[in-house]
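Hi, here's the filled form for the chain we discussed.

Project: internal
Contact: R.S.
Residues: 258
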Amino acid sequence: MTLGNSLLLAGKSALITGASAGIGAAAARTFCREGAAVTLIARREPELAALTEELRGAGHRAQYVVGDVTRVEDVARAVSAAVSAHGSLDAAFNNAGIGAEPKPLHLLDEDVYDSVMDTNVRGVWNCMRQEIRAMLAAGTGGTIVNNSSTAGLVATPVTAAYIASKHAVLGLTKAAAAEYAPHGIRVNAIAPGSTRSEMIDAWLKENPAMEEILLRSAPLPRIAAPQEIAESAAWLCSDRSSFVVGATLSVDGGWTTR
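And the returned structure, exactly as it came back:
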């Protein structure tokens, strides 16, 4: 460990999923600024290509792989690309996820439930399997951060599939943390509160009264910027959090303290 380095992720090779927008894109910029070489994966190539060009233009090491975290072969290609380009995979931020239109549980369509669980749970599972294999093969340990949500800690009405999926992410995180910490692989999670993103902005546009409700419901009465969530992920991926294992860091303006 190099705890005294001024850059959190100096010399590390990091994989970021769901990197084309929102928290993922903010994480790409943050990880690069903190010294990492990044491999980005998401489904939308134009956004990935533009972000990668931006990062390279600023002097950072960045590459992208177009892929879907629900497809094992896509995740394997991304992990392989990170190792091939940068010699190792030292850190991963499993950020990719989707939401669903609010609907009572008994009216929720099976295909919607399956889609949310497939991306948010199987996607994280797919990623961790490939990332851990690469880290074990290298024998030098690593760090993994899974993006859950305050919905992984508490429940609210009409979002059963999303809540179930984000609770499951925390279960996977704890299980992997317990299993692989002896191998030097630390696995943790973050639980963001309401954060500016395409998903939340679209939801608030359809439900304008909800923004005021959200603002009233946390001690810090505002919606987070993606950058604020990315900073937390970067710290957990760094050696500065070297004794943090199996934890869930709430980044929610105090919402879960209510």
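Let me know if anything looks off before we file it.
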